[in-house]
């Protein structure tokens, strides 16, 4: 028995004024044939050694039994269902409407009524799959107010985009899982937060930052930082392509959240022009790394695509690397920048 709170007042058990404790007690109960352990809350009267339950406590204790049961048999608890609904920012009534369940179903599930397995599966699927929720939402559009629908739609899209970004992050890390050794990685683990920050940092200061130039500038940043401080910044691994260094996973990297570009047409070709996100603020790069970046911007920022490609072709690291092979950091000491 643990005392949560103690206050001097009229005790409704013995009807005398004394110190009444609010206590937590571990109890066991059988619910739907399953024995569960749960934490109950009572008022304790030290005069009579009796426990007393207020109305609120009766409600909370009964919910605790049911949540202990839900946990034990692997169903979402009332708090988990509530948190999931809040994540989507949908009212209890509208959530039931979207699922085409009875109007008070979700309200009941967030309280005493234990959901069955089929409904639990649906709730879990919604929790982990915003795309699926979007489909359910569209199906229910006619039954919701326009304002509510738009609000929910916007929120669900936001969750979906976050999820997509997570898939993207996972896939890039999967590609990188086999890379090891300082000469390949520059002595740091892949840090996509820094990659995104560098892209924005460059996009903010470099006019007309197209993809080929950006990729070269990433390589130069990592290479120069390695030359100066013995480690790269991002952990990206670069290969020697005809137009110079290209990080492995470059197609995925430019799709990461907070990497922003517009597509530009040049005759038959489509190019990407990178822009900083609105209100960009750096938080991952160290002061030392920013010094490296500033040198890169100063030395290379004004070069056009052809000029930076030519510059790259003259780098010892590029000349010594067979085409499409990984560019080794062991050439960093010969970099044309200091
Ligand atoms: Zn008492």
Describe the protein in words.
It is a single chain. The protein is an alpha+beta fold and about 350 residues long. It has three domains: about 1-75, no CATH class; about 80-165, no CATH class; about 185-335, no CATH class. It is about 50% helix and about 20% strand. The protein contains 14 helices and nine strands. The strands form three sheets. The chain has a four-stranded antiparallel sheet with strand order 1-2-3-4, covered by helices on one side. A hairpin with a 4-residue loop joins strand 3 and strand 4 (about 50). It is elongated and about 90 Å long. The protein starts with a strand and ends in a 19-residue tail after the last helix. The mean pLDDT is about 95. It binds zinc ion (ZN). Zinc ion binds near residues 11, 47 and 48. Zinc ion binds near residues 11, 13, 16, 47 and 48.
């Amino acid at each position: 028995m643990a005392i949560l709170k103690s206050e001097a007042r009229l005790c409704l058990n013995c009807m005398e004024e004394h110190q009444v404790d609010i206590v937590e007690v571990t109890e066991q109960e059988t619910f739907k044939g399953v024995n569960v352990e749960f934490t109950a809350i009572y008022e304790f009267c030290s005069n009579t050694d009796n426990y007393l339950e207020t109305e609120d406590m009766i409600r909370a204790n009964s919910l605790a039994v049911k949540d202990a049961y839900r946990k034990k048999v692997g169903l979402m608890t009332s708090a988990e269902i509530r948190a999931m609904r809040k994540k989507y920012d949908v009212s209890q009534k509208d959530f039931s409407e979207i699922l085409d369940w009875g109007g008070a179903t979700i309200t009941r599930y967030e309280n005493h009524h234990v959901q069955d397995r089929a409904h639990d599966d649906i709730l879990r699927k919604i929790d982990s799959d915003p795309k699926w929720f979007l489909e359910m939402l569209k199906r229910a559009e006619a039954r919701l107010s326009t304002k509510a629908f738009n609000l929910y739609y916007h929120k669900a899209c936001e969750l979906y985009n976050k999820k997509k970004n997570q898939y993207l992050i996972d896939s890039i890390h999967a590609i990188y899982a086999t890379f090891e050794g300082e000469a390949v990685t520059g002595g740091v683990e892949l840090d996509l937060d820094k990659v995104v920050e560098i892209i924005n940092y460059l996009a903010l200061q470099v006019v007309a930052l197209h993809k080929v130039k950006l990729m070269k500038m990433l390589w130069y940043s990592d290479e120069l930082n390695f030359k100066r401080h013995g480690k790269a910044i991002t952990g990206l691994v670069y290969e020697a392509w005809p137009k110079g260094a290209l990080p492995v996973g470059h197609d995925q990297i430019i799709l990461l959240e907070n990497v922003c570009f517009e597509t530009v047409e040049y005759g038959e070709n489509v190019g990407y022009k990178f822009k900083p996100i609105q209100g960009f603020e750096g938080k991952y790069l160290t002061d030392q790394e920013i010094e490296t970046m500033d040198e890169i911007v100063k030395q290379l920022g004004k070069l056009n695509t052809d000029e930076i490609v030519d510059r790259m072709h003259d780098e010892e690291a590029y000349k010594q690397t067979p085409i499409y092979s990984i560019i080794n950091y062991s050439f960093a000491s010969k970099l044309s920048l200091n």
